[in-house]
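Appendix B. One record, verbatim.
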Amino acid sequence: MASLSESEGTNRGSMWELDQNLDQPMDEEASRLKNMYREKKFSSLLLLRLAFQSLGVVFGDLGTSPLYVFYNAFPHGVEDDEDVIGALSLIIYTLTLIPLLKYVFVVLRANDNGQGGTFALYSLLCRHAKISTIPNQHKTDEDLTTYSRQTYEENSAAAKIKRWLEAHAYKRNCLLILVLIGTCTAIGDGILTPAISVLSASGGIKVQNPNMSTDVVVIVAVIILIGLFSMQHYGTDKVGWLFAPVVLLWFILIGSVGALNIHKYNSSVLKAYNPVYIYRYFQRRNSDSWASLGGIMLSITGTEALFADLCHFPVLAIQIAFTLIVFPCLLLAYTGQAAYIISHKDHVADAFYRSIPGTAVVIVMLVTTFLMVPIMLLVWKSHWILVVTFIVLSLMVEIPYFSACLLKIDQGGWVPLVIATAFFIIMYVWHYCTVKRYEFEMHSKVSMAWILGLGPSLGLVRVPGIGFVYTELASGVPHIFSHFITNLPAIHSVVVFVCVKYLPVYTVPVDERFLVRRIGPKNFHIFRCVARYGYKDLHKKDEDFEKMLFNCLLSFLRLESMMEGYSDSDEFSVPEQKAEGSINNAFLTDKTNNNTMCSNGDLSYSSQDSIVPVQSPLRGNSLLRYSSHASHTISDELEFLNRCKDAGVVHILGNTVVLARRDSGIIKKIAVNYMYAFMRKICRENSVIFNVPHESLLNVGQIYYI
């Protein structure tokens, strides 16, 4: 009995080793792909043009903030000149510390190959540490030209922080929740900000017409908003050219009027540039000064857009536009308003239309601050003193504003928070069920050694045609395939496992998108194709995904034969089998090329599976090294593949229904059985995303209980 158990353990170990050799990761394919991607270089003239365009896209919210800041800071009027100077000093240093120092000179540098926003920070962290909650990353992904990352010394601070983040799942989940909070609050703010800005601007028409109804102002704002959003489909370039002159003129006007007001009314407001008046402001007004921070915080509304809209413009263009035009004009505008209000204290409520307090904004800024800590330590390898300095300066401004905004939640600040909460619930439920579905795929996958052990026919009838089996797994056989062949007695002559994989990069160059390899001996006609996409890659409607897959197979077969022509030791040896049977667990070693060989008597082949990339650097007279045998073999296989395509192509997709267990709580049942099911129903299916013809589609259903 003991010897029998030992034998079974040896067999299981050998079978696992065989499976690893049969279905190895595509390291060689990925490393051979060409590095076609090159970062864009901008001339000085082009940078100035882009800086001009960015005015019409990025800085609209910041530019309209002077319309409502002072009114929200003093909703009950101004009693003392020192209060205005103190509020102005707060505005000046808030603009200096948050938009200028934090975002323009620090946060903008933490971009993901030119992409900004909360998700860009998260994807950057996912490349430098294993913190993704879906463990589908592999070292082959690091060969992408857009997959930039840093390496660390074993005992460095960055390496210790990396190990600390990777140690426990709850840390990864906390980081994900933080990212979702930042993303959802940005959405909540983005929904309301255009309406607030336009409504505040439209309120100016009541200055000359005090008896005008508020309804008229609202109607004017609605008309303007409809006009603005109707232009969005023309694209960033045209919208930028259209609004950039208007916004530039706006900044010049508010800056000029501000300078005129300083000269005309009260130049003593310039003493607000002394930060001492901030201390005096809080000392004089006590609790009122704290509450007024909610209004003063509106002066930095739209700051997050500097980072979120980075995908449209280079960093240097936004830095030029802000430092040379936006920042000085805003300082002049606020200083001029303060000079005017000191001389006309009763006009503070008449000049601007009251707005909803813009609460979600400061939450997004706090999330960005916290995410910048691991970015500075892991990506930039900054000294801890610089990190602490950044945190202290940021939180010193943002935490007081956050606490002040909490006092105004009942005055309208609850609106963006409710919107953000709704989006957070949707995103978290979707992510939770997606992770559970991926775990189900991982745990229920079938051993490749078992599949190949069935022989070239897989124990079934191999009918003419090509079967594309879609899976989220980059290795192993998906459960839907075993479910399919268990219930049907036939399978196609050519089987291709297609894994569509999304990576934490903003884009995957087309030349590096597909990885193809052969699984097992040639007469099995089984392949694996991994299609890799970034988070900004779009699936175009006119993109023929099926044709792209087939062309990749053809290129693979041609280049595989080309590689075989270089060395006889790289060729397969696949004699005709006498009978189908399982592959024995005997391993031989080819001393000529150190490849592991699997043998079952009559059948022997290299576990390296003649790996070649879709595109190869082979050029020139190297083609002359083809052998006549290789040329004959490739022509036969290409002809066989074309005949299979003519016979018909079928796309086999898994339709996994995720349900909560019967003993689950009511909240989980609602989230999984209703919310997630509804979202899956209204979202586009993979067959639609990849333009799979309906007549070629075969769904394999299965139910998974979580």
